[in-house]
Amino acid sequence: MIILGIETSCDDSAAAVVKDDRILSNVIAAQAIHGRYGGVVPEYASRAHLRSLLPVIDTALREARVTMQELDGIAVTYGPGLAGSILVGLNVAKSMALALDIPWVGINHLEGHIFANFLLPEKPVPPFLCLVVSGGHTQLVVVEDEGRYRTVGRTIDDAAGEAFDKVARVLGLGYPGGPAVASLAEQGDPCAINFPRALMQEGNFNFSFSGVKTAVLYYARSLPEESLREQLANIAASFQAAVVEVLVQKTMAAAKHWQLDTVCLAGGVAANKELRLRLEQAAAAHGCRLIVPPVALCTDNGAMIARAGVSRLRRGERSPDELGPVPSLVLGEEEGAASGGD
Predict the structure, then answer these.
(1) Which helix (H) or strand (E) holds 182?
(2) Mean pLDDT per segment of 10 residues, for the chain of length 342 residues?
(3) Strand 73-79's sheet: what is its strand order?
(4) Rounded Cα–Cα distance for residues 307 and 213 (Å)
(5) 337, 319 contact by CB (below 8 A)
């Protein structure tokens, strides 16, 4: 089954061609304009998708050496994300499917992140636990089977990625904040400042990163300008250590609680080297198998959407033509967006 995957949930125009479990192409066009504003400007993002998505799709097909007539279906993100950005991808997918007379299916962006793990040589076998940690989402998901998910923990305020971006703004590191904080943290002492770790009670699998973000803000404000410059690396390292410790401890506790011996990592923050290292160490100590996608499959991409589409289209699922963007979509709602069979 050869599937075109289209991903436009935020500020990257992405398209990929996947044949079953094999990536034939994976093309991403990033939008540089948002850096000057310290975050994504929705109107600019949707306009950029209008300009770049079709060339990205053309490149993906060319690199895959696949013609449009050889496609068996199209998968496209329909939420969560920015409504205007999602709408561009949805309309392109619907138009192509209609013109080519092939099926299409809407994919939950978070499900796509989970399916990045199914593109690896050694795939996870359900049931397993997945830590989905991205710019706007942090949650623990029990993957009972392909298409069957149970969220057992989620953030009650800021997601980990949001906290990284906001701390980067506090420290004057620019956008995107996650890579900037992680890079600076490599030069600092993670034990220099004891920032808070929230909701660490036994049996609590939810997350909260608003407190640690606020603690960084007040700590930075308490320092004279010269001292702040001297402490930047230590602040970044200590903040990152606090976030990573919470993510790792809750993930391993959830795996033990639900008696799951396989743990997967997914989402943009999964590219963080410290998180990958600490989770690898913790999984080894607990006797768990850890599966982590390469960095290229952690950030938003079309391959993960295409692979999720392979799974749903194989089961005969199709999305109705009236399906529109669902900016606040949560994992599990997508079952209502597709119908079984033609």
Answers:
(1) helix 177-185
(2) 96 96 95 74 88 97 98 97 97 98 97 97 95 92 94 95 94 90 97 97 95 97 95 98 98 97 96 97 97 95 98 96 95 44 36
(3) 22-29, 13-19, 2-7, 73-79, 104-108
(4) 35
(5) yes
